[in-house]
Amino acid sequence: MKSLAFTLIGGLIFISLPQADAAIIAKPMVQLAQVDSAATGILVANDQIAVFGNREKNGFLQFISGTTVELSCGVESFVSAGATDSDGNFYLVGAAANPIVGTLPPITGVLNPDNVVPDPVSSNKSDANTLCFWKIDRNGQVLDTQTYNLSGPVIPSALIVNQGVVWVAGYQYANPGVKSFILNLGSEPIFLGKSSTIIYSLIKESDNSLVAIGQSGEKLLDKNLRGKIDGFLARYSKGKLVLVQRSSDLNANRAWRTSTNSLLLGGYSNQSAVITKFAANFQPIWTDRYPSIGSALTAANSKGQFGAFVSNGVFKALPSWKRKNSILLLTFDKKGGISAANYIAGNRVDGLVASNNLGPLVLAGGFVYRT
């Protein structure tokens, strides 16, 4: 089990590393379904599983039952984040280029003796500054499609639906660099940072506050940069930024990529995947680090909390684990102890989600796995 020992020295909180649990043996995950190899995210609503991703010029949502919904918006569009609601609906958000429609001048001379005017053509060279939103029911029927023009090229990275209200977060090219935005569909965006801030995940709290999670290389509120790039948590209350917590690793490239509603965050620091549980006041409760070639992802259901990453070596919290270049799924108890471990042969984890009935589901390399 993991012991939680806190020492306060000079105003800094030091968190003990997890105690090894030799009784936990990693078991292989079971392949549930093969899906489109271009899938980059996974969603589950009322035990209906779907994956989403992108083709050359449009996005898609594929239900593992077989139905695929093509998602187009503009000349070229993409899907980059998704969410579900309690009614079993699926929501996707992405962006598209504003179409530039016109006609080519007629070709004169012997090559075009009839002086035919070509059909209208569309250019795909404009920036992707149109936000695209889709709502799809569990049968694959598109219920709603909306577009919003923004002031610059954007990549939406987070989407939440709460009591019928849709919130989108992402980042926008700022020339130079990138800044992040949060918006309620149809409202003006709130911006975070000026040139070096990316929001990857968004949480709606019970008091209607919003918590943004991501990475930043610039000062946010009253918090200065500590490493090369810091992971951060930022709370907005009534549209105002009121609290920021940054990672404390000096000279590190750090980011938080995912979060559960209870603030179990997954991310990375240099060559380690990192999972940290935070309290409501943004103070860390416990943390784990694992040798990895990428970021950790996190998910939770009513029965537990989970983290997945590509393992690149042994670590003290799971002494029985010896594999490299495998996807490792860890199940944590309420105190942060590792209660179960599962693995998949592979070197890239594309998505992690959890439902109460199906448990944790991992998307990797065109396949969905379960424990």
Question: Would you give an account of this structure?
Answer:
This protein is an all-beta fold and 371 residues long. 0% of the residues lie in helices and 54% in strands. The chain has no helices and 33 strands. The strands form 9 sheets. A 5-stranded mixed beta sheet has the order 3-30-29-28-27, with no helix packed on it. A hairpin with a 5-residue loop joins strand 13 and strand 14. The radius of gyration is 22 Å and the shape is globular.
Distinctive features:
371 residues, mainly beta, 4-stranded antiparallel β-sheet, globular, disordered N terminus
SSE arrangement:
Elements: E1 6-9, E2 12-15, E3 27-28, E4 30-34, E5 39-45, E6 48-54, E7 59-63, E8 68-71, E9 77-84, E10 90-96, E11 100-102, E12 121-123, E13 130-136, E14 142-149, E15 154-162, E16 165-173, E17 178-184, E18 190-192, E19 197-204, E20 210-216, E21 230-237, E22 240-246, E23 254-259, E24 264-269, E25 272-278, E26 284-291, E27 297-301, E28 304-311, E29 326-332, E30 338-345, E31 351-355, E32 359-364, E33 367-370
Parallel strand pairs: 3-30
Antiparallel strand pairs: 1-2, 4-33, 5-6, 6-7, 7-8, 9-10, 10-13, 11-12, 13-14, 15-16, 16-17, 17-18, 19-20, 20-21, 21-22, 23-24, 24-25, 25-26, 27-28, 28-29, 29-30, 31-32, 32-33
